[in-house]
Amino acid sequence: MLRGNQRFILFFDLAMAPHPSDAPSLPLAEFIPYLKKRQANDLCFQVIDNERRVIRLSALREIKLTNGSPAIALLFCLGDRDKADPGFTNFRTGKVRIPKRADDEAGGLSVHAVISLKPTQKGGHLYRMVYEDVSGFGRSLIQGFLRAEFKIISDDQGITFNREGSKEPLKTRPMVELSGHASDRLKDSIKTRPPAARRADQLPGKEPGIRRIQIHQVRAARPQPIDRKGAATRRSTEVRGESEGVRAQERL
């Protein structure tokens, strides 16, 4: 169940792989002004699954990471006509109330994401990305959405490249791919542990190699003991904010 005061965060690598494969890499930062303009003009949405679902970029903001690197924060929203309506239970009487949908309304989900605009290597096409782990709003939806948006932008801007031996410039665009990003600690532990211990690291229902962070809001920022029960390890750290602490629990 999605709680109001906690979120799980997934770490990914976003690849801007050039298409065709012999085309030069296209920097992610060059697409952001056009993506931002499309979002501001309410053009940044895709209707999918035989018009049963719609995914939309509801907000986009350019930010700075703690290390000073440029990044973007995004809010994706999903409308699903087939999603069950929410119900509310009266705490005292136990009666259940299910609100009636208005015309053109659909069940909704939302996901926040942050993408670094600095590639992992100079001149490369891999970018670090984190987003909320929300059931029913997986990476395939976000990957397909960004891939479609960047294709529209590439076509509108007439992005081309010159292939050796070709007389005419050829169209090119980035093929966005999201792949799970494992922490160095996890990768090192898998290399050093025996095969029997490795299987214990694979949590049920989770893809191997994806880092998963749990975020809690807490009243005070106090150090928490490390819990080493079981095969999986949970590490708690405290981060102080202006008005309240945020506790991040990293589950490896």
Secondary-structure element string? EHEEEEEEEHEEEHHEEE
Helix count? 4
Structural domains: how many: 2
Structure summary, number of beta strands: 14
Determine Rg (CA atoms, Å).
Answer: 21 Å
Shape: elongated
Oligomer: single chain
Average pLDDT metric: 78
Which structural class should the secondary elements be placed in?
A: alpha+beta
Strand content: 35-45%
Structure write-up:
The protein contains 4 helices and 14 strands. With 252 residues, it is an alpha+beta fold. The protein has 2 domains: 10-82 and 106-181; 184-252, no CATH class. The two termini are 21 Å apart. Residues 193-208 and 217-252 have low confidence and may be disordered.
SSE topology:
Elements: E1 6-19, H1 32-40, E2 45-48, E3 53-64, E4 70-80, E5 88-89, E6 96-97, E7 107-116, E8 126-132, H2 139-157, E9 160-161, E10 170-171, E11 173-180, H3 184-192, H4 195-200, E12 212-218, E13 234-239, E14 245-251
Antiparallel strand pairs: 1-8, 1-11, 1-12, 2-3, 3-4, 4-7, 5-6, 7-8, 9-10, 12-14, 13-14
Short description:
By secondary structure, this protein is of the alpha+beta class. It has 4 helices and 14 strands. Helices cover 17% and strands 37% of the residues.
